[in-house]
Amino acid sequence: MKTLLKIASYIGLVLTIIPPILFFKSYISLDSSHLYMTIGMLVWFGTAPFWINKKTDESSSES
Amino acid sequence: MKDQKLFKKIVSENNEYERTPVPDNQLKSGKSFLGMYAGEHTAGTEFVIGPLFVAHGVAASDLVLGLLIGNLLAVMSWGFLTGPIATSKRMTLYYQLERITGKSVVNLYNLINALMFCFLAGSMIAVSATAVGIPFNLAMPELTDWYPKTPGWILAVVIMGAIITLIAIRGYNQVAKFANVIAPWMILIFISAAFSALPQLGVHSLDGFIVAAKEVIWTGVPAAGFSKFTIWHVIFFCWFCNMAMHIGMSDLTILRYAKSWKYGFFSFAGMYIGHFVAWIASGILYAVFLQTNVNTNEFAPGPIAYQAAGIAGAVCVVVAGWTTANPTIYRAGLALQGIFPQTKTWKITAIVGGITSLAACFPALVMKLLDFVALYGLVLMPMGAVIFADFYLADKFGFQQEQALNNKKTFTWPALSAWLLTLAVCWLLNYFFGLELFFLGLPGWFVAVILFVLFSKIKFPTLKTKIA
User: What are the backbone dihedrals phi and psi of residue B57, each rounded to the nearest 5 degrees, phi first?
Assistant: First the structure.
C-alpha cells in the first residue's frame, strides 16, 4: 500500500514539474499546464501525508 | 523525513538537553541536516525577496554572481563559525549565553528575539493573505504602502492571523508534519512557476532566457521610490539575511545534534535551493507580473504566483506563508516563556499571535522585508560575536571563559555592554557615514568582538597562579 501511495505521490510531483516544461517548449497551453499542476497538487496532498510522516514516526520510535 | 524529527526536538515543549550537552547517542546524521536546511530555507519569504531584488533594480549578472558569492559566504559562516562551537559545546544558544552573560541578559535577548520573530511571522501572514484575497478580489498592497489601506485587507490578515494562532496554540507537531509534506512540492512549484512564466516573456530557450534576464527581468533599473542595489548589496544581503542563525549563533541549538562540525556546511542545500533557485524563480514571476500589468505598483506574492502557476501557485503562497509563520510564532512563544515561565503556553502563544496579526496589517513589513531581515540579523549578531570570542579568544587574551557561570552571577556587564555599544556604533556608521544597513554586520562583528574582549579583560581577567 505504501509503495502505491509513494508512486502516486511521485506522479503528483511529475504533474507539477513536467507540464510547465512542456508549456515552456510550446507543446501545451498555459491553461493546460495550470490544470495539470492543480491535479498534481491534489494528488501530492492526497497521498504524501500518508507516507512522509509515517516514515518519521517509525524512525522516532526506533531511537 | 528525518529533519522533522530533529526540528521537533529543537522546538518541542519538553526541550530536551536544555541545560546539558547533547549525549553522543542522540547525535544525528548529515542527511537530517541536509533535509532540514533545504526545507527551512525554501519558505514564504522567498516569494518576497526575489521580487524585491527586481524592484531594487539589481542587474542580472550582479544577481547571479552576488547570490553565488553571498551564499558561499553564508555556508562558510555556518561551517567555520557555528559548526565547530556547536559540536564542541553541544548546548543551546540560550544556555551558552546564560553561562557567559547571566540569566538576566538572556531574558533581554529573549524578549528582543521574540519581538523580531513576531514581525517576521507577521510578514508571512501578510504574504498568505495576498493569496487568500484573490477569490475575493481584495485590493492588494502596493510597493510604496506602509499602512493598511482597506478594511478588507485588515479583515483578511486578522482572520489569517487568528487561524494561524489557533493552530500554533494546538501545538507545533501537526504544522511540522504538514511542512514536511509541502517542502518537496514547494521547491518544485518555484521551478515550475519559473518555467510557466518565461514563455510569457517570449522566452522558449536558454539563449532567450539570458537575453530576457538582462533586458526584461533584472534590468538594473529600480522601481520608483526604491534604492539601487549593486552586486555588493546582493552579496551582503545573501550572506547576512540569516546572520542571526550563523554568525549570531542561533543555530548552535540545531547543530549541537550534529555528529561532525562539518555538518554546518550542509546549509548549502538551503542556500542554493532556497536562496538561489527560489529567489531567481520568484524574481522571474514578478517580472512577468509587471509585463502583463503595466504601470501597476501592486506588490502581492499571491496574485504574482497565481498568474504564473495557477491555483497551485496561489495555494503554495498560502501554505508557504502559513508554515513559515506558524513555527515562528511558536518560537516567539518559547522565547517569551523563558522570561515568564509561570505563564501558560497557550496564553503566551495567544499574545504573540495577537502582536503578530497586528503587525501583519502593515504592508511595510512585506515591502521592507529586506531591511527588516537585515536589521533582525544585525540586532542579534553581537551575541554571536560574544560566544565566538568567549570560545576562541579567552585563553589567548587572558580573560575568563563563561564568566557568569564561573563567578556564579546572574548578570555580567561585558557582553551586554558589547552588545549595546556595537549597535550604537552601527547606528553611528549608518547615520554619519551613510553605511547602509545591509553592510553594517561586518564592521559590527569586529566591534563586538573587540569590545567584549576588552571589557572581559577588565572585569574578568584570568586568575594567574604564581610559580615561585
Answer: 65, 40
Residue B392 lies in a domain: no
Instruction: Report, in this order, helix, strand and coil percent for chain B, each rounded to 5.
Output: 75, 0, 25
The tens digit of pLDDT for each residue in B304-361 reads 999 999 999 999 999 888 888 888 888 888 788 878 888 888 888 899 999 999 999 9
Tell me whether residue B228 is in a domain.
yes
Q: Across the interface, which of B5, B178, B188 has its CB nearest the CB of A56?
A: B5
Q: Do A33 and B188 touch (CB under 8 A)?
A: no
Write out residues in chain B with pLDDT < 70, as ranges: 1-16, 171-172, 464-468
Touching B: A residues 16-35, CB under 8 Å = 16-17, 19-21, 23-26, 30, 33-35
**CB distance B146 to B225 below 8 Å:** no
Domain that holds residue A39: 2-48
Q: Is B28 helix (H, G, I), strand (E, B) or coil?
A: strand
Tell me the HSE value of B205 on the side-chain side, using a 13 A CA sphere: 2
Q: What is the distance between the terminal CA atoms of chain B, rounded to a whole angstrom?
A: 61
Mutation to test the A interface, candidates B185, B187, B323, most A Cβ within 10 Å: B185
Residue A61 has a pLDDT of 43
Chain B contact set for A56 (CB, 8 A)? 1-2, 4-5, 177, 180
Q: Do B178 and A60 touch (CB under 8 A)?
A: no
Number of independent structural domains in chain A: 1
Residue B397: CB atoms within 10 A of its CB come to 15
The CATH number of residue B99's host domain is 1.10.4160.10
Tell me how far apart the terminal alpha carbons of chain A are, to the nearest angstrom: 25
Is A28 contained in some domain?
yes
The interface pTM score, or ipTM, of the predicted complex is 0.90
**Number of domain units in chain B:** 1
B303-318 pLDDT, tens per residue? 999 999 999 999 999 9
pTM higher than 0.80: yes
